[in-house]
Amino acid sequence: MSMLKGANVPVSAASVRVELGWRSAPGTPDVDASALLLKAGKVRSDADFVFYNQPSHASGAVRYDGKGTGPGTVTDSLSVDLARVEADIERIVVAASADGGNFGRVPGLYVRVLDAASGAEIARYDSQDATVETAFVLGELYRRQGAWKFRSVGQGYSSGLEGLATDFGISVDEPQRAAAAPPVAPAPPAPVAAPAPPRYTPPAPPAPPAAAPTPVRLSKVTLTKDAPSVSLSKQGGNSGEMRVNLSWQVRKQFKGWGAKLGRAVAMHGDLDLDLCALYELTDGRKGVVQALGNAFGALHQPPFIHLDGDDRTGGSANGENLSINLDHKHQLRRVVIFVTIYEGARSFADLDATVTLQPQNGAAIDFSLGECTVPSTVCSLALITNTGSDLLVQREARFLVPERGVSPQRTIDYAYGWGMNWTPGRK
């Protein structure tokens, strides 16, 4: 049952999952979840803001998990380990921001708190009165007499994520505006010769002030056909762990190959997509990270790529995820991230799929795959190339059609010239 605005419920679970959700519909803005850890109503520093560009709190108490899709729905989630929240933190505000529109255009917006261990719903609040707001505080976890509670809030901001962040004490990195040109001064009179002034020794310059902390960057990078690539170093995201997420949903209306896909999904049940990666290391070693053959890889040893697991239902809120250890970027020559259809459909047609690359440091990078118009069962998502001084992320979004008797993996190999030997595998 949904809570009324301002109501509160006790939270007895030691760890919770906070899920923002809404119905997918044409023209719906992109919505992003965030959390602010507050002391006396403000953050202690910019590090107390957890969102897509800063996905983990230093204490390990709060983590941004990212987006997922289901039938007709989209979710964005946070994990909160209440036992690890620092003692001076009084509240954890759960907020959302809308990119490309306002919350009046986001149907069915809700927030719910789930027991992370059992999945049981602890609290739920459905927003009913959003209009022109572009940022929203949906609820908050707060301490009361040594115990945690959740309160529904429903307070909006028309100034977006920037306005919400600054209201709680976040320093936001704003683009520099060009200064107005100074007025042109009249020409000075002709100089009059004067005796040279006596020489003197200038005073020593004052010590430079301590460097101010870098303000929080709220921007995201969206790759398109016209702007398909981005430098990780220019985004400040070329170190730490980078998570790659693929989320998808089946469109409701079918046509062409989509009609065949609709029947395939109906016949075979849930759609099972597999996120994979071909890698080539600087020492010449090549391989694949995938669920087939249990080749899940490793994060802290070659190939420095790890597949989290295999979502066989196709309905997981978190989609498919893999991680790349950018601290070992000098050992990566190139990586092709791709996806295959394992079962449930004969083509990617009429799928809405989104790829998000979330560096541990730096801006999130995302893009959509667009429409598939061919009977494709394998799609290359992104190509990551070591240029020698940087890692370049290139949006691929190439729907490939395997030849008869050729596997999706071998098809990717042919397209990118990996030259590997392939044998049948199963999971």
Q: Can you walk me through this structure?
A:
Residues 1-168 form the TerD domain. This is TerD domain-containing protein. Belongs to the CAPAB/TerDEXZ family. Residues 176-214 are annotated as: Disordered. With 427 residues, this protein is mainly β. The protein folds into two domains: 8-167, Lipoxygenase-1 (Sandwich), CATH 2.60.60.30; 221-416, sav2460 like domains (Lipoxygenase-1). Helix content is 7%, strand content 39%. It contains three helices and 24 strands. A seven-stranded mixed sheet has the order 12-22-21-14-19-18-17, with no helix packed on it. The chain is globular and about 65 Å long. The two termini are 40 Å apart. The model is unreliable at 175-185, 253-269 and 313-317 (pLDDT under 50).
Kindly summarize this structure in a few lines:
This is TerD domain-containing protein. Belongs to the CAPAB/TerDEXZ family. With 427 residues, the protein is mainly β.
CATH H-level superfamily title of the largest domain: sav2460 like domains
What is the CATH domain class of the largest domain? Mainly Beta
**Broad structural category:** mainly beta
Low-confidence stretches: 175-185, 253-269, 313-317
- Total beta strands: 24
* Helix-residue proportion: under 10%
Strand order of the largest sheet: 12-22-21-14-19-18-17
By CATH, the topology of the largest domain is Lipoxygenase-1
Provide tags for this entry.
427 residues; mainly beta; Lipoxygenase-1; seven-stranded mixed sheet; six-stranded antiparallel sheet; 39% strand; globular
